[in-house]
Write a structure and sequence with these properties.
heterodimer; A: 263 residues; mainly alpha; 11 helices; elongated; B: 228 residues; alpha/beta; Rossmann fold; 6-stranded mixed beta sheet; 4-stranded antiparallel beta sheet; 10 strands; 34% helix; globular
Chain lengths: 263, 228
């Protein structure tokens, strides 16, 4: 199992580097942009905070983008949220199904290793990849703050990165279950799922009737503007996340153990 | 001789589609057993049920005296399997695939792998994606043989191999069998069965018929391929 886990890490290393550096550099650049925009940004901040539902949806009614934390929350919050969600979805939705899709299943499953152990190795790989993604992005954002000469609000910043990590695990967990069920690579479905979760959260913050149901989506507890403005995330959102991760991972183990494997 | 493979009343269906029906098969240890049959007859279904890729409805399979469901991992420790489609992770190099296969088994097979690569003329420096079907099959043979298993299961192994490599492949099988291994050879090539197998069976439309001798003539052989 250890050897399979290490090989899986090796196979996915390139994707990890591409995604973490791409998302991290985008966030890093956004942070550096703050300096060049600082002079004119106050006018923009006033305009953006008075755009009604749009301002609510992107958190600009509670945070000013003229401040570094407000700018980080609205700009980097979106880039990291979407980028991380897409990476988690793409990685997890293909990690089991690629064996059958790429006809390598008979090679992988002909070793004296149980199906459960193969799934465990792949699940662990997803977790390590998501951890590494978060660490790389965190370091790049901190470097951005350092180069800017600004001290980030460390408590809120770390809470944001930790919640985003949890959100990525939730999306990864759901997609991991789909990967074991499907037997075919469903990258499109994974990206679609990440986008649906994102837009569900954006729309949920605009439409009053939906606000009570925001906790269903993983973006609800990882929303940057709420974290940086000190709002508490509903406990139901974390319970929902735990239930969905558990259901996704459990269904991966149960499914792969029960069904026929394609050649 | 004890039984290397013992299949009793195996039935496997794919939803409403037929897989195999009431298959009974015994392969003795030390045998080179020819497993013939047209495309879709159920040869691969039988093999894939034996190795735990498929979950079957009824019947019992014992491999090397062990239950194919309960002792799945233990069985695979002692089996060298070559699937009909020899696919590996395309970005890996041949040497890495061979070493990976040994590592996952927790064995150091470097010496045997080197010997096999030399005999089969495997270029270990190439990437899998650069290989032709024949060369991928050679890598698959090395992966199946390097740990010197007690039972070989080959699913259409010679397709894509040139005649010289086919000859080397059967020489290797004979050598391992002489050392105590058993071989189940699924194939469409009657001449291979005639020449190398000690016993044989033929599958047709999901049902298995044991042949009295693997030395059958073309006409008898082709009669199994004709529609009923």
């Amino acid at each position: 199992m250890k050897r399979m886990f290490l090989e899986e890490l090796k196979i996915n290393l390139k994707a990890l580097l591409i995604w973490s550096i791409a998302v991290g550099i985008m966030g890093f650049s956004c942070i550096l942009l703050f300096q060049s925009m600082e002079g004119e940004i106050q006018g923009m901040a006033d305009a953006f905070s008075n755009m009604g539902a749009f301002s609510d949806a992107f958190g600009m009614s509670t945070l000013s983008i003229a401040s570094i934390e407000g700018f980080f929350a609205t700009e980097v919050g979106t880039v990291h949220g979407l980028g991380g969600a897409m990476f988690a979805a793409i990685l997890a939705i293909g990690i089991i199904s690629k064996e059958e899709e790429g006809h390598t299943g008979e090679f992988t499953f002909s070793f004296p290793v149980s199906r459960k152990k193969v799934v465990a190795a792949k699940g662990l790989c997803v977790l390590i990849m998501l951890t590494a993604f978060t660490v790389i992005c965190t370091l790049l954002y901190l470097l951005g703050f350092k180069m800017l000469g600004e001290e980030p609000p460390m408590g809120d910043f770390m809470t944001f990165m930790l919640r985003q990590y949890l959100m990525n695990i939730e999306i990864g967990g759901i997609c991991f279950g789909i990967s074991a069920l499907s037997g075919k690579n469903r990258t499109g479905l994974g990206i679609g799922l990440a986008m649906v979760f994102y837009f569900y959260d954006v729309i949920g913050r605009v439409v009053p009737d939906l606000k009570d149901y925001l906790f269903i989506g993983p973006f609800s507890y990882a929303n940057a503007s709420e974290i940086f403005s000190g709002k508490e995330a509903p406990a139901a959102a974390f319970i929902m996340a735990a239930v969905l991760v558990f259901a996704g991972v459990l269904s991966a183990f149960v499914c792969i153990d029960k069904r026929d494997l394609a050649s | 001789m004890p039984n290397a493979i013992e299949i009793t009343h195996l039935t496997k269906n794919y939803g409403k589609n037929r897989g195999v029906e009431d298959v009974n098969l015994i392969v003795k240890e030390g045998d080179i057993f020819g497993f013939l049959g047209p495309n879709g007859a159920g040869k691969s279904t039988t093999i894939r049920s034996m190795l735990g890729f498929l979950r079957f409805e009824t019947g019992e399979i014992k491999i090397l005296g062990m239950d194919s469901v309960k002792d799945h991992e233990k069985i695979l420790e002692n089996v060298g399997y070559m699937p009909s489609e020899a696919w590996f992770y395309s970005s890996m190099r041949v040497a890495d695939v061979i070493k990976y296969a040994a590592d996952v088994r927790g064995l150091d097979c470097a010496e045997e792998a080197r010997k096999l690569c030399e005999r089969l003329k495997v270029d270990t420096h190439k990437k899998i994606k650069e290989l032709s079907l024949g060369n991928r099959k050679k890598v698959s043979i090395v992966c199946a043989m390097q740990h010197k298993p007690k039972l070989f299961v080959f699913d259409e192994p010679t397709g894509g191999l040139d005649p010289l490599m086919q000859k080397h492949f059967f020489e290797l099988i004979n050598e391992y069998v002489a050392q105590g291994a058993t071989c189940l050879l699924s194939t469409h090539v009657l001449s291979e069965v005639n020449k190398y197998c000690k016993n044989a069976a033929i599958m047709r439309e999901g049902r298995l018929t044991m042949l009295e001798s693997p030395r059958i003539d073309d006409e008898t052989f082709l009669s199994f391929y004709e529609e009923e």
